[in-house]
């Protein structure tokens, strides 16, 4: 069972593009009690930049103590390591696919279809109608006409 605070935090985490209200961090100063949600690492960096300590109750992590700061930094190191491992696996997977001859990326539009798109556009037909007529998406039509 989750408490209302945990539910609010979960909702805040599910919406990473949510910006804090204007001036939310403006009043956060050292030695002032501050309650708010920090949903992304740049916000944590802002708090650290203002020399504001962080206390995570559920994890019993307090950055005002040397042990808490060390633990917080170790968590950052492990997160960075995990990200590096993911990048390495993706790169090796792409290299393996290339070695097998797998074609990566978007398929090329056939030159005849490109010519037909340009012809129909020059005759005044709209992009949506061109796409429906030729059986391609409007994004394909837009991309061909942009070149």
Structure explained in plain terms:
The chain has 147 residues and is an all-alpha fold. It is 56% helix and 3% strand. The chain folds into 2 domains: 4-99, no CATH class; 111-146. Strand 1 (55-56) and strand 2 (61-62) form a beta hairpin.
The biggest beta sheet reads: 2 strands, antiparallel
Strand order of the largest sheet: 1-2
Strand content: under 5%
Mean pLDDT across all amino acids: 77
Estimate percent helicity: 55-70%
**How many structural units, i.e. domains?**
2
Q: What Rg, in angstroms, do the CA atoms define?
A: 26 Å
The low-pLDDT segments are 4-18
Number of extended strands? 2
Q: What form results from the Cα inertia axes?
A: elongated
The class by helix and strand makeup works out as: mainly alpha
| Tally of separate helices | 6
End-to-end Cα distance:
56 Å
Order of secondary-structure elements: HHEEHHHH
Please sum up the structure shown:
The protein is mostly helical and 147 residues long.
């Amino acid at each position: 069972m989750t408490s209302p605070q945990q539910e609010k935090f979960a909702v805040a985490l599910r919406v990473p593009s949510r910006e804090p209200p204007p001036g939310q961090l403006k009043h956060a100063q050292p030695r002032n009690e501050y309650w708010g949600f920090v949903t992304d690492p740049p916000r944590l960096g802002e708090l650290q930049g203002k020399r504001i300590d962080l206390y995570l109750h559920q994890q019993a992590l307090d950055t005002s103590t040397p042990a808490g700061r060390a633990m917080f930094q170790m968590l950052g190191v492990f997160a960075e390591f995990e990200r590096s491992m993911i990048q390495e696996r993706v790169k090796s997977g792409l290299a393996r696919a290339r070695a097998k001859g797998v074609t990566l990326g978007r398929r090329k539009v056939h030159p005849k279809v490109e010519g037909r798109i340009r012809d129909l556009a020059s005759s005044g037909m709209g992009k949506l109608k061109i796409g429906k007529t030729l059986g391609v998406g409007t994004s394909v039509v837009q991309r061909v006409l942009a070149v």
